[in-house]
From TrEMBL:
<feature type="region of interest" description="Disordered">
    <location>
        <begin position="511"/>
        <end position="533"/>
    </location>
</feature>
<keyword id="KW-0472">Membrane</keyword>
<protein>
    <recommendedName>
        <fullName>DUF11 domain-containing protein</fullName>
    </recommendedName>
</protein>
<feature type="region of interest" description="Disordered">
    <location>
        <begin position="429"/>
        <end position="479"/>
    </location>
</feature>
<feature type="region of interest" description="Disordered">
    <location>
        <begin position="162"/>
        <end position="183"/>
    </location>
</feature>
<feature type="region of interest" description="Disordered">
    <location>
        <begin position="273"/>
        <end position="294"/>
    </location>
</feature>
<keyword id="KW-0732">Signal</keyword>
<feature type="signal peptide">
    <location>
        <begin position="1"/>
        <end position="29"/>
    </location>
</feature>
<keyword id="KW-1133">Transmembrane helix</keyword>
<feature type="transmembrane region" description="Helical">
    <location>
        <begin position="484"/>
        <end position="505"/>
    </location>
</feature>
<feature type="compositionally biased region" description="Basic and acidic residues">
    <location>
        <begin position="162"/>
        <end position="175"/>
    </location>
</feature>
<feature type="compositionally biased region" description="Basic and acidic residues">
    <location>
        <begin position="431"/>
        <end position="446"/>
    </location>
</feature>
<keyword id="KW-0812">Transmembrane</keyword>
Length: 533
């Protein structure tokens, strides 16, 4: 993955992330001035980068030869080979030089301390205007220190690069809680230029990855929910590759629904979106696996089996775990013309963990929702979050931001104005969820509860429409869930401007408490939803 050249009596090779540049040759040699991982190939975007100019060179030198400190370290950056390809600017330790003003700079880094982040925030690079796609040149870094050997690192800088895309993945269904399965990701180079090597980052909120392979890096301890792997495999345009051995994925005991994602990347030397500190070994929180090297092999998977550019490979997990969800609605009591509050609850009775479930509230005829007023906040210390959105006339969608563990209850309170006293008017509280993430709720009959109205005063008027019925009673449970999918994913995931459509204020967080059995006309039910995103 890395190419390192040292000037002096001998040649040393950096073996893996964090390896030492061992001294060789003369017995009088004090060892290299620094240790450093530098990618042998880096890619720069042809487009402009930022108003300040350039991407930061992400170098992290450590004292050489295992020393705790190294004083008087200097760095020479030589970009003279990048003519018509890229240009640099410098500041701070390297002096103030505008972009393109010089090709060679000397930097005084001072004392380096082992274990400390020694990132010199001093050198930035960008493509020169008019740089040809695919053009490249070499940038060299020479580190020196008194009594130590000079060390030279080189990186081949290329303008633009490959377009690596992950495969479109099918959902997995029926995995048992606590089970494990093997997964083989695939990637394809859809671009016009080869990749000189590539990495994979795999992430999950809860699924764990076994620490199997030496060229992958995992979390420092316990179950690792991430893996960063690097492959020194050149990928030509149009080629696709798959890992040879499967990556083991563990399913959490309480998972009803979940997912994990992966994406390929090409390694850059800059701290931009292409950079991944896990595979390079510069992230101290990650550790390499203890097994053999994970290798890749070419495959003949068609191009349309892969995602669009910048897409993620996502594997959805629909396990055999279940979650019994319940809803509860307080009755709305008051006189005509007055306002009254009602609290709506969503409880997860387990045994699975749920996320993505929302409450659909159909307001009874004759009532309207009162927009909340922010509480006094003279010190500007409160954070307001909206949790309900009007999606239809007299229909609102509310839901928690966080997953509900078994035994958790989430609730919200809305204020209603009793505009008219409508005979027999009732609203409806329903639990809705994303149909692409089945809930495995064993008691769907409990997914709804009536919203009773006990109004007094004013003339009693006849209803102009029938009271709403739950989806299970109309036989339209799938259709109603489909209508909620976009709203749940977009409306509840963003803050809508203007406030015209969002009326409920987040007033209560998820609580771990039992919901009492309902009495009288308040009603209760159960709801279902996906466990994890």
């Amino acid at each position: 993955m890395y190419r390192i050249r040292r000037l002096g009596a001998a040649l040393a090779v950096l073996l893996g992330a964090g390896a030492l540049l061992a001294p060789a040759g003369s017995a009088q040699a004090a060892g290299p001035a620094v240790e450093l991982d530098v990618p042998k190939t880096a890619y720069l975007p042809k487009r402009g980068t930022s108003p300040t100019g350039g991407l930061r060179l992400w170098l992290a030198p450590q004292p050489g030869a295992g020393r705790a400190t190294q004083s008087d370290v200097t760095l020479k950056v030589d970009a003279s080979d990048l003519d018509s390809v890229a240009r640099i600017r410098t500041r701070r330790e390297c002096g103030d030089h505008a972009m393109g003003a010089t090709d060679v700079v000397d930097c005084a880094l001072g004392t380096l301390t082992r274990g400390k982040d020694n990132y010199p925030d001093a050198v930035y690079i960008e493509a020169v205007p008019g740089a040809r796609l695919g053009s490249h040149g070499t940038i060299r870094y020479t580190f020196s220190a008194p009594g130590a050997e000079d060390v030279v690192f080189e990186t081949d800088v290329r303008i633009e690069g490959p377009d690596l895309r992950p495969r479109k993945e099918k959902p997995r269904e029926g995995d048992a809680p606590g089970a494990s399965f093997g997964f083989k990701p695939q990637i394809r180079n859809a671009g016009a230029f080869p990749a000189q090597g590539f990495g994979l980052t795999i992430r999950s909120p809860r699924s764990a990855f076994a620490r199997q392979y030496s060229n992958c890096r995992y979390g420092p301890e316990g179950a690792s929910t991430s893996a960063d792997c690097w492959f020194d495999q050149r990928i030509e345009p149009g080629q696709a590759y798959e890992v040879v051995e499967p990556i083991s994925v563990a399913v959490p005991d309480t998972m009803v629904n979940g997912s994990f994602t992966y994406k390929p990347y090409v390694q850059g030397m800059t701290g931009n979106a292409e950079e991944d500190l896990g595979a390079t070994g510069t992230d101290p929180g990650l550790r390499p696996g203890t097994g053999p090297e994970l290798k890749v092999r070419p495959v003949d998977t068609p191009a349309d089996a892969f995602t669009d550019r910048f897409g993620l490979g996502e594997v959805r997990l629909h396990t055999s775990q279940t979650a019994d969800l319940q809803v509860r609605a307080d009755a709305i009591e008051g006189t005509t013309g007055s306002t009254a509050e009602s609290t709506f609850q969503l409880r997860n009775a387990g045994p699975g963990r749920i996320s993505g479930t929302s409450l659909r509230i159909t307001v009874p005829e004759g009532l309207s929702v009162v927009a909340p007023t922010p509480p006094p906040d003279p010190d500007n210390e409160l954070e307001w979050e909206w949790e309900c959105s009007r999606i239809e006339e007299r229909v609102y969608l509310c839901g928690p931001d966080n997953p509900l563990e078994p035994g958790d209850t989430w609730e919200t309170t809305l204020e209603f104005r009793i505009d008219r006293n409508v005979r027999g008017a009732r609203g409806l509280l329903e639990a809705v969820h994303d149909p692409e993430r089945p809930a495995n709720d064993p008691k769907k009959s409990n997914d709804s509860a009536p919203i009773e109205v006990r109004a007094t005063g004013g003339p009693l008027v006849e209803p102009t429409e029938p009271n709403p019925k739950p989806a299970s009673a109309t036989g339209d449970s799938e259709g109603k869930d489909d209508s909620m999918l976009l709203v749940m994913a977009v409306v509840l995931g963003t803050v809508l401007g203007g406030g015209a459509l969002v009326f409920a204020l987040r007033v209560r967080a998820a609580r771990r408490k039992a919901v009492p059995e309902p009495t009288g006309p308040t009603g209760h039910g159960e709801t279902s939803g996906p466990d994890e995103t």
